[in-house]
Amino acid sequence: MKNYTIISILILGLLTHSLQAQDKKLAQTGMKFLSVSTDARTTGFSEAATSVDLSSASAMFYNPSTMASLKNFASLSVGHVGWIADINYLHSAIAFAPFDGDYGVFGISFLTVDYGDFFGTVVANNEKGYVDVGTYSPTSYAIGFSYAKELSLKFAVGGSIKFIKQNLGSSVVDMDPSGNFIQEDNGLKAMAFDFGILYRTGFKSLNFGMSIKNFSQELKYKEETFQLPLTFRIGLSMDAMDIFNIDKETHSLLVSVDAVHPRDFSEQIYLGAEYTFIKTFSVRAGFVSPADERDFTAGVGINRNFAGMNVGIDYAYQPFGIFKNVHRFSFNFSF
Fold this sequence. Notes:
Blueprint: H1 2-21, H2 40-44, E1 74-82, E2 88-96, E3 105-114, E4 118-123, E5 130-136, E6 139-150, E7 155-175, E8 181-200, E9 207-215, E10 219-221, E11 224-226, E12 231-239, H3 241-244, E13 251-262, E14 268-277, E15 281-289, E16 296-306, E17 309-318, E18 326-334
Antiparallel strand pairs: 1-2, 1-18, 2-3, 3-6, 4-5, 6-7, 7-8, 8-9, 9-12, 10-11, 12-13, 13-14, 14-15, 15-16, 16-17, 17-18
């Protein structure tokens, strides 16, 4: 157990050192769609989920180690994010715990982004000053394969490997002698890694978690190089009802805090809370600081058991300053 702990901390230390060494290029990141929170439940309490024992497939989008304690054979999560500027996210994840989790929990995640259609033009010597060259539709997606394992009753580790592709559509680069436009695709592929640990301290329900997301080599698009949105997080969480010795079968109040070091922004603090009544109805709220257009989130959820299957529906609301409000919906199934 001590060896596993030491190895995990060393890995996180090396990755953190790499992240800090890149501060000289602060704000130079690409494929920012990887930074958008997807799951409605987690976003409802401001994404402060690094140390929260999610025990569901949605954990793959945050700290993969937190899906290690999956209590069912399988967990499925699907959802939609109505992002700013009419951008739409669709996400899904499925996790399996074969043989009662004796060999760990395996998972697959998928995220795709639809940016809509755009009109393409090129400069021309005519009355309009341009010529239409049709429409193009940028897209992005990421496919992840995850694994998590409880090494003891207190300690869990997890990791993900992700294949990522972003296509910004085709663009006109030249014209042939016949007057036809010559176009080229603007796509880029990458591999990235996530890693995390979860430690249950043993003091009531107090948990400690650490994670690193989007660790990858430097990428080059055309002539410019950039990094993925590498992010380091540490967090603490606890059911506050432990302090007041209240029946947790009736009332639960999850309180969590994350300290976040993103590669392209200043350090941030995420605070979140989730109150749950009779393990069924949940109300959530969260706050992040510093932030530009977003800071506050809220959400609700309901979870019920039907014929041996747990079904959960969650919604999150996020005001986004000068942009329109962001709405998230997630559906979770476990059996």
